Amino acid sequence: MNTVTCPFSGATATPAPAAAPASTPGHPAPVADWVRIEDLHQDPFPIYQRLREEAPVHWVPAVNRYMVTSYAAAHEIEQDEARFSANERNSLMKRSMGHSMLRKDNPEHQVDRDAYGATLRPGTIKKHWMGIFEKNHATWLANLREAGPGADFVWDYAAPYTAENLRLICGFHNATQQDMQRWSQTMIDGTGNYADDPQIWAKAAQSSAEVDAAIDEMIPYLAANPDHSLLSNLATVPIPLEAIRANLKMTIGGGLNEPRDVLANTVWALLNHPEQLAAVRKDPALHAKAFEESVRWIAPIGMYPRETTQAVVLEGIELPAGARLGVVLGAANRDPQIFEDPESFNIFREKKPHLAFGGGVHFCAGTWIARAQVAQVALPAVIDQLPQLRLDPEQASTDAGWVFRGMTKMPVLF
Ligand code: HEM
Please, is 232 exposed, middle or buried when counting C-beta atoms within 10 Å of its C-beta (0-12, 13-18, 19+)? Predict the structure, then answer.
């Protein structure tokens, strides 16, 4: 049997396994052997366009998964955990962060999710977190100003702002925002370590051990001095320590990059569309629209995994039991069957439900927190307080990634 080596990770893949007969007749998945990881990393959108035009699902040897790129197929998967399990076998995420709610099916998943209590819900955000986000914004905007012309909007402002917010949401009073950024990145690198690089595993394991130690120290403190954080709530519910650790590691990995990326992506997109920026300046109701259009246009989580529990036919494509799927939100959110002129950033487009926060039982638990810290606090304040904000013409901004996509460099003048 032929094997294919992923040029980016070095991982080997076998061609698409033959599907077992399913109840409804379908077609075998086409093989997209032309897709390369480096190209996805640089700019996945032309690749998604070609994939979607050919079929809703492909076997992609370089990724060693079936990539699901149509909106209808992605939506069907999200709504049906009986046929499409989140509990992927051989999961690198489980190895890097432990077995969190994100890789469990119900009823186990719901037990973990309920244990997060009210921390991430709208009422707590309004009463408690909004004031904290405003204070953190002031601190890190001052940091950006101090860095002067050519300061990096991502690394001098968006990253520390969102990391500090998440530190307090989690309840790590014994860590710094820099710890949060390092933990997040090294454990995420573990979840993508298809090349089995021992150095990446060592860094992920070091961060994992540091998070365990921080949790062990904070639980007795928060039991005696409760606050509104996740850890404070977790300290009061009968849930195994192993689940607390895994869920917090997943939240550190999933609750930092995404708000950071949507904040920088939105500002970058508005700076590149001055007429839309001018409209947002005039009408505060458009902050929320800019946020939603930004996560549709560039889904911060571009792809997440699922596994079939039985042979299925998905949008006419036969998949065997145990098939490893990548649900490509970055592609589904630009499906022309749903969104008119989908490649354009347009805050005035007709309102349609995007899939950037997932759907079904795993619908993002941090959606309201993300909207609050980005669309309600940071975005209006940045636009109001930096009226001369513009991209530095001397130093180009860069964006990259496909599983996670965002600005990697964004020098600004103000
Ligand atoms: C714009 C920002 C964000 C985006 C685009 C986003 C996206 C997502 C997506 C797509 C999923 C589902 C993944 C899957 O089904 O495999 C998810 C799950 C999750 N997210 Fe977010 N997220 C964001 C911010 C946050 C924040 C700020 C937090 C926490 C502070 C958070 C916490 C979670 C949790 C706990 C889950 C797991 C839910 C479950 O399994 O039931 N997210 N997120």
Answer: buried
The residue nearest atom 17 of ligand 1, judged by CA position, is: 364
DSSP type of residue 404: B
Q: Which amino acid is at 233?
A: N
Residue that is written with structure tokens 């810290």 in the block:
373
> Tokens at residue 107, please?
């009823």
Q: What tens-digit pLDDT sequence spans the chain (414 residues)?
A: 333 332 223 333 344 444 444 456 799 999 999 999 999 999 999 999 999 999 999 999 999 999 999 999 999 999 999 999 999 998 989 999 999 999 999 999 999 999 999 999 999 999 999 999 999 999 999 999 999 999 999 999 999 999 999 999 999 999 999 999 999 999 999 988 877 899 999 999 999 999 999 999 999 999 999 999 999 999 999 899 999 999 999 999 999 999 999 999 999 999 999 999 999 999 999 999 999 999 999 999 999 999 999 999 999 999 999 999 999 999 999 999 999 999 999 999 999 999 999 999 999 999 999 999 999 999 999 999 999 999 999 999 999 999 999 999 999 999
Structural tokens at position 410: 């964004």
Q: Which atom of ligand 1 is nearest to the CA of 162?
A: 27
Distances (CA, A) of 86 to 19, 55, 99, 121, 189: 20, 23, 11, 23, 20
370 Cα–ligand 1 center, Å: 9
> What are the residue ranges spanned by the domains of the chain?
4-413
* Ligand 1 center to 171 CA (angstroms): 18
Mind giving me the DSSP string for 285-354?
THHHHHHHHHHHHS-SB-EEEEEESS-EEETTEEE-TT-EEEEEHHHHTT-TTTSSSTTS--TTSPP---
What tokens were used for 59? 């076997």
Kindly give the distance from the C-alpha atom of residue 204 to the centroid of ligand 1, in angstroms, as a whole number. Answer: 20
Fold of 4-413: Cytochrome p450 (1.10.630)
The DSSP code sequence of 58-86 is EEETTTTEEEE-SHHHHHHHHT-TTTEES
Question: 102: Cβ below 6 Å to ligand 1?
Answer: yes
